[in-house]
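Students often ask what a holo structure prediction actually looks like on paper. The answer is less mysterious than it sounds. You provide the chain, you provide the ligand, and the output is a string of discrete structure tokens encoding the 3D arrangement of the protein together with s-citryldethia Coenzyme A.
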Amino acid sequence: MTDRKATLSVGDKSIELPIYSGTVGPDVIDVRGLVQEGVFTYDPGFVSTAACESAITYIDGANGVLLHRGYPIDQLAEHSDYLEVCYLLLNGELPSEEENKRFHDTIKNHTMLHDQMRNFFNGFRRDAHPMAIMCGVVGALSAFYHDQMDVTDETQRQITAHRLIAKMPTIAAWCYKYSLGQPFMYPRNDLSYSENFLQMMFGVPCEEYKPNPVLAKAMDKIFILHADHEQNASTSTVRLAGSTGANPYACIASGIAALWGPAHGGANEAVLDMLAEIGDEANIEKFIEKAKDKDDPFRLMGFGHRVYKNFDPRAKVMAQTAHEVLTELGLENDPLLKIAQRLEKIALEDEYFVERKLYPNVDFYSGIILKAIGIPTSMFTVIFAMARTIGWFSHWNEMVSGNYRIGRPRQLYTGSEKRDYPKK
Ligand code: SDX
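The corresponding structure tokens follow.
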């Protein structure tokens, strides 16, 4: 924090506001005192608003940089694994070899669900969207661990983190199995986190499942690339829910709900639907024009970002992973991949996208990988939610373990002035 000041002139008033600097990134102007001056700031969509102080993730949108506790995302994707990244996001430092092994073992011991949880799945139609099921089941976890949800108790917060990291793959895979009418597969402790997820997704009780190491590594990379992303819409939702003192399972369920939207985590599913709708490289120009037409609600899904005005560093890793997976599966000529690659090339050369600094984001290639692995598009955002759970929890934990106030934005009121109820 510094003692620098910004001066704001409002009418004949001159208001001094403190300026704070972080480790890196833009300074912030503390506007909390404005309410005493009878004015609010106005920032629908929070384009220029820092809602909190955080040490977890830093994004430099102009230069396409993403750091988790200071470590660049491409280095973590290359050298780490998802559970080690979970430890890093949660605790602030990379684990020692011994801490890493203990953490991996701890997570393995929490992967099963209480058997009563099975009943929640049965209440849904078989064709329910898996995000609806995941949202309901994760919120229901608060009914099973109600005696360990004291948000002021660090030990209880830690066990909750372990339970959520461990159980989300089981819940996600069971959402998929339920939609197929296939039996739920139980987690296996002899497999890695991502191998275990693939086993619960594609294994059947009739035969042993042998995970493909290339696909397991790709899944683990996808988990890492989706783990956290600063104060995005769903993470801000989790923080706001947490600021009321709500239990962590309810807060994570609120994050799942917010992520579902096609402008956010639902974009990966929307990208595949868009590529299928384009259908052929010959139709790309028509869809580019639709995306540019203000009167057409169509947008190029997987393109653009509130913060990145350069390549999303995650998209670069994802594009490389897509190539590896499709080559492994002999699908390097996958028509959807060809359409995506051509669409990216054309868009990046088009003045409309260049002028607005619209680049491919994390969602542009992820769906192509997931589809190649055999995962249906309806499960894409479920996988995003599973991976982002550590980010949501880490931000919730950072907030509730410090000083915080209930989040309560104000408004610019444009409704009726006071008027009396008409006498009958
Ligand atoms: C994620 O915040 C995060 O960090 C999110 C995320 C995370 O990890 O948590 O990174 C994950 O949500 C990635 C984004 C996934 N969404 C999509 O791919 C959906 C398509 N993208 C757009 O809906 C949009 O780009 C957003 C929602 C991502 C960003 O919206 P903004 O910041 O509010 O930008 P905007 O709507 O104000 O757009 C600015 C201009 C507008 O044109 P003008 O009014 O200036 O003429 O760019 C245009 C927009 O019309 N524009 C697009 C476009 N995205 C923006 N035009 C066509 N296609 C697009 N995809």
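Residues 45, 229, 232, 263-265, 267, 291, 299-307, 356, 358, 361-363 surround s-citryldethia Coenzyme A (CB under 6 Å).
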